[in-house]
Amino acid sequence: MSEPDNTLTEEQRKKGQPRLVGLAVSGSVNNAFITSIAALFLLALNATPFQVGLLASASHLQRATRFIGLYLIPKIGKAHLMFWGRTVSILPTLGIIALAYYLQPGTQAVWLALIMITLRGLLQQTGNTAWWPLIQDNTAGDAIGHFMARMRMAQRALEIVLPVCVGWYLGTKPPAQHFAPLFALSLIATFLGAWWVRKVSERPQANTNQNLVQRLWHVVNHSPVQKLGIYMAVYMGLRSMGYTFWVVLLTDRGMPYMHFVWLTSVGALGQLVCLPFWGKVVDLHGGRSAISMALLGMFILGFAWISLPSNLLYLTLWAGIIFLLWGVIDGAHQMGRTHTMMKAVSPDYQAESFSMIMYGASFGGIVGGLSGGVAFEYVHNLSHTTYDPELLYLAGIQFLYFIVFLLSRTLPGHAEQTTTRDLIRKRRIDE
Q1: pTM of the model
Q2: How far apart are CA 382 and CA 58, in angstroms?
Q3: Considering only CA atoms, which of 408, 161, 157 is closest in space to residue 275?
């Protein structure tokens, strides 16, 4: 696969990058006003742990529509696909607002909310088929880590402020109607994101006589894409089985909804503080060391879940430390895997390659969300046990990240990149 010579000019990249940052920021606003509180909304409608797990699976199932996106990109372009995906998703968002206002808590309300949230995600994910190709187009020749750090710092800055406001508004245990104004605010962010992405420059599709099926078959048989797809499947499977149920356990132990939403700000703060460092690390040394340190950190966090403070104040402080550490290591993992993907995917097959990697993540997320929902509901209902089964379950999931660490050693470019040991040794010498 040859590198095309029709890269964007520096002027086009300078105009496109701020628009992509704006689109990413609008996504963070959407996350604060819908995605991050969707599980709390379902709990306000009296959802079970299994239904919360189903929400996590649905969020990954939404990526199935990327096949439609792959078909549409050659016809309407990447930026226009993103524009229409955002614009049309406004309709199910209006449906979610109506559900929050008019439906009473119960099984019917939970299932209708799940359907509308999933439909909204399906439409946005169709547009998101173009996200990573647009990033690759507009960073070719530039420092990827520097741009990604700048973009994610803007996102995390908002994700520190907005959850504080959202948490204060929701209070301790709000009725479902209280979520409606927040959902309404997400409409503005969705519209702005669609508006900003319209004029982002893009590299044209590579000339090829292959149809979509042939291109997908070529990508599936491309070793770097296979390895990244398998890796993301295992990682997202564990994340869906564990992190998804932190909200269930903490709110069940008496933590107010307000405090849990604020914890997302703490996690964003952890990312914000360390993103410049991780961006510099991946630009200078590749993604290997950032990924390794992040996964080992996730493994070590398993020890924190073995016991839990019973006092609400201590529980909140404990959770704040956990979310802060999670933000630091999750930021490292994001930067490392993004750099690895950008270097491994050929621009000739960019949309297909990124989509197949995301399908791997989706498959893992779906399986993890469903199996985690069943397993966590089972341990949630256990009684008369010596040890707390919910805590042992969450600790066990964290320990399983060591498997992902071993799998990371098969990622593209791993052998050529700086090891964690060499990175630490080099920094000691520099100091």
Answers
A1: 0.73
A2: 26
A3: 157
